[in-house]
Amino acid sequence: QAHLVESGGGLVQPGGSLKLSCSASHYDFGGYIMGWSRQAPGNERESVASISSSGRADYVDSVKGRFTISRDSAKNTVDLQMNNLKPEDAAVYYCYARFGLSTYWGDGTQVTVSS
Q: 52 with 76: CB under 8 angstroms?
């Protein structure tokens, strides 16, 4: 059974930084698109950043220039470096791995941005 586990969430002040990490096990996600989505209370889940198996990264406009996604296919991990965090970035962040119609999700990690 494929399993994704996120870590690195927490409380940070506006303008601060956090690094989220996702570790995948029991499955080789080397050929998958991996990424991060987030969901704030009352909002739909939105894709924040994704990275292909070849390393191409895509970001939602609201995080461009502030967030950086990276992956280590050999270790089956994907990270999200988040800088200059804003209150509107607060959400539960979910790691995912997608190939065609198949998507695996982690359980999420909470990010709170507050002074």
A: no
Beta strands in the chain (DSSP E): 3-7, 10-12, 18-25, 33-39, 46-51, 57-59, 67-72, 77-82, 91-99, 102-105, 109-113
| CA 96/CA 107 separation, integer angstroms | 10
Is the CB of residue 113 less than 8 Å from the CB of residue 86? yes
What confidence tens digit (pLDDT) does each residue in 3-41 have?
A: 899 999 999 999 999 999 999 887 788 889 999 999 999
The answer to whether 70 and 79 are in contact (CB under 8 A) is yes
